[in-house]
Each structure stands twice: as structure tokens, then as C-alpha cells.
């Protein structure tokens, strides 16, 4: 079973188990209700399909960001992925993955506030710790191309649109030719 650990935000150091369908947002009836004004009432959905974990944005105002990129469609989650909902940052991990658990624990220990640090230093340490933990986990969990969700490229979309436009143009031309031939037949041949 997978889990989401909040590493930054109002509910920091809180861990949630991922269920078959896990909703994240401000409303209390979400599976994971977060106290974050930048989050939508129902912001994101994490779900399991064929034993793999996926995330989808629920048309939220500020979107859902995975590893620094705003997601547009469904995206598969991998151990160590960072999910940002509003100002809250989660790390996705599988409970039986000791490397992710160890990295998460080290990030939490390194980022615990010390009285001698200023808030500005703490924030930069937080960003640095997240980046280091994420990169070390990604090195160990190489994504296989067969598992990675790929969106169609712009060229593929354009090719599809071009084919459609060509077909429509051919149909329109055929209709025009038919109408012109009928008009010619009726006006000049009879």
C-alpha cells in the first residue's frame, strides 16, 4: 500500500495511506482534507488502476503539480514523486520501499526547525532537502518506458488534425463539384 507524506504546509509531518480513490482538497469530506487556502475544495484525485498509482487534477484553480510540472491529464505516480496541491507538498511512497522511507525520514530530520535559523534559511533548506531526496529516490526507481504514461506529442495532434481537415476539404470539394455539375446539367443541357 502506498502513502502520501506532507513535508511542507500546514499539516506538515502528517502521513496518509492511499486508498482505491483518494481525494485531496480543502473540504472536510475529502479523503485528505488539508488546511490550505491555495487549494481548491476538491483539488486532486489519486487512484489505483491495475496495481499502479495515478493522479488527476480535478479542474482545480491552481492545478496539481507533480515534480515541478503542472499536470494536464492523468499521470502515473512513482516512489519519490513530489505532489504540490496549493502550498502543501506531499511525497508519494510505497510503504514497503525502505529507501524512500529512509530518505523521507532524513529530509524531515534535516528540515526540523532549529532556533538559530532564520525563516528564510529554513525555506531554502526545505527546498534543498526536497530536491535531494527526490533526486536520490529517482535514481533508484528508474522508470521503465512501458510504465510511463506518455501524452500525444504536438506533432501527432497536428497530423491527426491535418488528416481530418484534408478529409473535410475533400468532402466539401466533392459536394461543390456535384452542385456545379447539377446546375450545369439543368441550365445548359436541357
From TrEMBL:
Compositional bias of kind Basic and acidic residues: 120-131
Ranges of compositional bias, category Basic residues: 137-148
Listed Gene3D superfamilies: 2.60.200.20
Composition bias type Polar residues, residue spans: 109-119
Chain ranges passing through the membrane: 166-184
Stretch list, region Disordered: 108-155
InterPro entries: Cell_Proc_Reg/RNA_Proc (IPR050923), FHA_dom (IPR000253), SMAD_FHA_dom_sf (IPR008984)
Highest taxon of the lineage: Bacteria
Keywords: Membrane, Transmembrane, Transmembrane helix
Domain FHA, first and last residues per copy: 22-71
PANTHER family, alphabetized: NUCLEAR INHIBITOR OF PROTEIN PHOSPHATASE-1
Protein name per its UniProtKB record: FHA domain-containing protein
